[in-house]
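# nightly structure sweep
# worker-07 picked up a monomer target from the shared queue
# config: single-sequence mode, recycle default, output format = structure tokens
# input follows
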Amino acid sequence: MSAPSNAATTGPAAGSAATASGAGARRPLGSRLAGRLGGGVVRVVLVLVALFWLMPTIGLLASSLRDPADIAATGWWKVFTTPAQLTTENYSRLLDNDVITNSLLSTVLITVPATLLVVAIGSFAGYAFAWMEFPGRDWWFLVVVGLLVVPVQVALVPVSKLFGEIGIFETTIGVVLFHVAFGLPFAIFLLRNFFAEIPRELLEAARLDGAGEVRLFTRVVLPLGGPAIASLGIFQFLWVWNDMLVALIFADSKNPPITVALQQQVRQFGNNIDVLAPGAFISMVIPLVVFFAFQRQFVSGVMAGAVK
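# output follows
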């Protein structure tokens, strides 16, 4: 007689436990929708978004490979139906245009030193703020962080007067110094936070082996800080290469960087589209090549150095 009673007792309990387990295992509606749509549909949507985002770049590339007469007559999308329009004559004319070629050289002479100086000085300062003891270290670092919010426009007039007095206004040196000054706060902030994540035990072990500060910095800190340094280099390179405000004010008006040269060419858009389109595309491709060359270090460096 006791067996049916036990069965009657355990049956509803087991049923309620199963019901509770099923309710607890039920996923939220958003999770279920994401699971069902996480396959091909999402991939198709992402591909369409990427194509839409790249549409101006594709149009610029197509225009740079078309004859000026074809550009004036039809839209750039006609190259897909009439690929015979594609030609490299525009790039040949671009190489013969002294204004564009000199502006590209001027941009390189500004961007490369400004990037290397910011990376080098920022690395030394970041290591000092992270692992060296000196009076007022934390207060000085707060000053550096505060400089991050200072807009470039605030310094244009006083720095112009200063550069004019010392004779470097409208020179490559003046543009490089301006970019270095405004690039250092972010560089120090990023690298200091990254270097501070290095285990203290590793540095102490190197000191016990007789390594001084210089050897410790070059042999231990710099190799470990490669991702952050690569990220900083990409940031600085893109900022300086694509800058037009600083170049428009401080650069030599007779030999301006590529951004200013293209802006001047736009005024004669109807007459020199065969030079403007390939020049703009080359100006855009070079930073992209630099970015994709260091994209792995860029992602890891930003994620590791953004917060402490």
